[in-house]
Structure formats: C-alpha cells, structure tokens
Amino acid sequence: MNEFEAPITDLSHDGRGVARIDGKTVFVSGALLGEQVRLKIRKRHRHFDEAETLQIITPSPHRVEPRCPHFGQCGGCSLQHLDAASQIEAKQRVLVDNFARIGKVEPESWLPPLTDEAWGYRRKGRLSVRAVAKKGRVLVGFREESNPRFVADITRCEVVHPAIGTKIGLLGELVGGMDAAADIAQIEFAAGDDTVALVFRHLKPLSEGDRAKLITFAQEHGFAIYLQPGGISSVHPLWPENPRLAFRVPAGDGLDDVELEFQPLDFVQVNAGMNRRMMAHALELLDPQPTDHVLDLFCGLGNFTLPLARRVAEVTGVEGEHGLVARAAENAARNSITNANFHVANLFEDQRGTEWARKPWDKLLLDPPRAGADKVLEYLPHKETSRIVYVSCHPASLARDAGILVNQHGFRLVSAGVMDMFPHTAHVESIALFERS
Q1: One of 393, 398, 418, 431 is an active-site residue; which one?
Q2: pLDDT tens digit sequence for 3-12
Q3: Is residue 367 a known part of a binding site?
C-alpha cells in the first residue's frame, strides 16, 4: 500500500511536511505543519520515505494560494503555499534548532527578522535548458520538484527579476529556433541596475545565423548577451561589445554611497533589496569606529569591505577567487576608497603565516559559503579582536562555528536572527553578533 492518511507534525529544513507512518519518517511535498493529508509514497529509503500530497483533508490556517501556476511542478520554490509570516517563523525555528543541537549555544537575544520584497527579487541564477523531442520544443527553467533530472515546463517565474522572469517562455522559443537547440546547456542571468545579462553556455560553436538570432533577441528585449563556449574564463560578450554590470548602494540607512561593478558569473547577493538591508544591518552590529582596523573574510567583490572603508581607519578583504579580488580592488579605486586592501587566499587552508592573518584586528566580519569558517577559526580571531559579525548562508555551519567562538575563543553570542534573502524557499540566511567576554 502506497497511499495513507496522516497528520503533518513538523516542517523539514527543505520545506516539506513531516509525517510518521508505522514509526517511519515520511517527508511529504506540498504539506504544511498541522495539516491532515492524504499522501502517496513515491520513494522508499531505509530510514525514511518521500511522498507527495494527494489531498489536503484539514488545511493549515497559514496555507495560501501560490502566486505561480507552476508551483509544485517547478523545484525553484518550496514555500509559496505558506504565508509570509509563517515562512519566517519556520526559518527561525531551523536557526534555533541548529544552535541548540549543533553549536550547543543560544544567543542572549534574537534579532527581529530582516525582510524585503518577496517577488521578482532574484537578480542572479541559472536556468537549465533541455530540448525535449516528445514535446517538440525546448524547455528553459528550473529543475522539476519531483524529478531533478527533468527541466520544469514553465513560461514565467514570479521570483526572478521581471526582465527575465516574464520572458522564460520566449527564451525557450529563441533556443528552439536555433541550429544549436540541442547544444545549449544552460542560461545564466545576472541583473545590474541598468543592464540585464544572459550567458548562453553552448557545447559546440554557434553558427552565424544563431549569433544573429541572439543579437536580435537582445536588441528587442534589452538584454546583454554573453557566450560561454568553455570554462568560466571563456565567457565573453556577444552584444553589445562592452556591456557594464553594476549595482549602486545609495547613501542612507547607515550606509554611504558605493557602486560595485561585476562580471555576469561573479558571485553577488541574489536579492538586491535584502543585500542593502543586510549591509546596513551588518555595519550596525559591527559598530565600526574611525580608529578601527577591520578584517573582512570571504569578501567577494567588496560587498561589505567598501561600505566599511568609509567608516574605519583600515579594512582588509580576503577572498579565494582571483577575479573577485581584482574587481574588489577596482571597485575600491572607482569609489575613491584608499584605505581598503585585498588579498587572494584559500580560506579553507591554513593562512596563519600570512601578514594579514598576523595583524591585530579590532573587528572581524565573516561571510563564508555553506562550508562555514571553521578552518579560519583555528587561528583567528586574535585576542585583540573584540567584536565579530558572522553572515551565514547555512545555519548548521553557523551553529558549529558559534560553538567554536564561544567555547574555544571566549566570545559571547550576543544576538542572532534570520534574513529572508530567498523568500518562498526553505533557504535560511542569518546573521550573528559575537563579543569578547
């Protein structure tokens, strides 16, 4: 028997409902905490099963109608059926649980959740492309929720920047009319303030006809088109000849005016509005003073480094990718910032012998990838460091590193809270403040 009726007793870290059937945990797509549902098991595993919702018998009072008609089929979002306040509560529960279970620590206070625009916010991402013979056309979109091997058949996306999200169906028609329809592997998008770029990854050289079609599409819809015939270093503009991607952080809310240029495959925070709020929030927590010397690790393009430079005596940014470091330095020069310097270093390897790692930094800002910063915390911070702000994209690694800072380095976890960088998804972005005990 594969169909059951069961109550949903929890919400998993990836946004699925959790049920118990015959003592076994079942993750149920489309179900919410507190609901009674009829479900169908679609995959069995040794310690858990996966299921889909067939019928909502008793709906949650927090259930809402998803805006996107592709919700449930497309795997890009998992929480559109849950109201906004409950989405934040669910993410907060994940953060609380990770601190308690992994880090064995609890903040002295919880920060109010940081939120911004919930629709059309995604300015960076990757669309899969697949020529499907049975459908007689090319699909462009995100992977299917139930089977990630397949591309979801969608025509628009409500969370992607409107310049792109409203034209996903047109992108499918464009690629479908190209000689290279079967050879376009993906389309990456990146939106600056004035330019929206599309990067076409193609497995074989494009014909002159295909190049002409891409240019015409760009001119009609206002895109900058890049081609990627090989690795990242092969990316180059097709039209216009010298497109410029940049975003400005205007003065206000505790920030000074800065502008950051970037390349289409560079890492930038996907949510422009939330990024601005996050930058202001991080600076407020770090409390930079004119005499401070600050170290910004995993600095990327200088997202935090440059605003910090306006407030302190010196700031040093460290990042592992050469291209990002070069552009961070260029951004500093472009903004007439002279007290910021940058270094290339693999922060997952021991860097304690470097000059920047030996300096007595007053304050430290961390913004690591999902793996966290445990390798850095083997030799930093020094005793001179009084305050740390940790920006996290993965609550488990933040919780682990919080335990290291508290139990091994003698810091207090003063405050922490979630930041909704990815509304309608189960992704949890968070921020924490540590002070020397």
Answers
A1: 393
A2: 999 999 999 9
A3: yes
Peptide bond into 360 cis (omega under 30): no
Compute the C-alpha angle 162/165/167, nearest 5°.
Answer: 105
Residue 362, marked binder: no
Q: Look at the chain and count its residues.
A: 437
| Residues paired with residue 252 on neighbouring β-strands, in sequence order | 255
Query: What is the pLDDT averaged over residues 377-397?
Result: 97
pTM for the model? 0.95
- 393 an active-site residue? yes
73 is in an annotated binding site: no
**What pLDDT, in 10s, does the model give residues 416-436?**
999 999 999 999 999 999 999
Inter-residue contact 120 to 126 (CB < 8 Å): no
